[in-house]
Write a structure and sequence with these properties.
2 domains; 4-stranded antiparallel β-sheet; two-stranded antiparallel ribbon; elongated
Length: 146
């Protein structure tokens, strides 16, 4: 697998197919077939401009969708559309704000952003984090004895 085929596995897990029948997908230029989203990413290349090839937009019913652009080995640009599974409710927005606050707090304490994000996601999924146990948690404003 070349560097241009590497995509963050969290990104793939974070995207949900808009319509399950979009796979298998076929390139209209060369006929190459892609069994599923993982196969699509593995067999295609990132966009040449160095971006991840993602574009957020609104779907037909006003929902947020993410378009993933990739280049087929034949040179044709392909696109697939995914639902954004993000919770758009006030609670979801509050969780994202808190996550961003925690990210900033951890980066201020010397963690690389990539490491901080990984560790926070691990804890959110119920896994332990040896790294985070060594960092004092930020004040929440709820401490009456602080």
């Amino acid at each position: 697998m070349t560097a241009s085929n590497v995509v963050d596995p969290e990104l793939i897990r974070g995207l949900e197919a808009l319509v399950e029948t979009t796979f298998p997908k076929r390139c209209r230029c060369c006929g190459r077939s892609f069994a599923d989203v993982a196969d699509y990413v593995a067999q295609t290349n990132a966009m040449p401009n160095g971006t991840e090839g993602l574009k957020q937009s609104l779907g037909d019913e006003g929902e947020v969708v993410v378009d993933l652009f990739r280049n087929c080995p034949c040179g044709s640009t392909l696109m697939d559309t995914f639902n954004d599974r993000r919770d758009a409710s006030p609670k979801g927005e509050a969780r994202r704000r808190r996550f961003d606050e925690l990210m900033a707090y951890l980066v201020e304490r010397g963690l690389e952003a990539k490491v901080a994000r990984h560790e926070l996601l691990e804890v959110m999924h119920g896994k332990p984090s040896e790294i985070l146990t060594k960092i004092r948690p930020p004040a929440t404003g709820n401490n009456k004895h602080a």
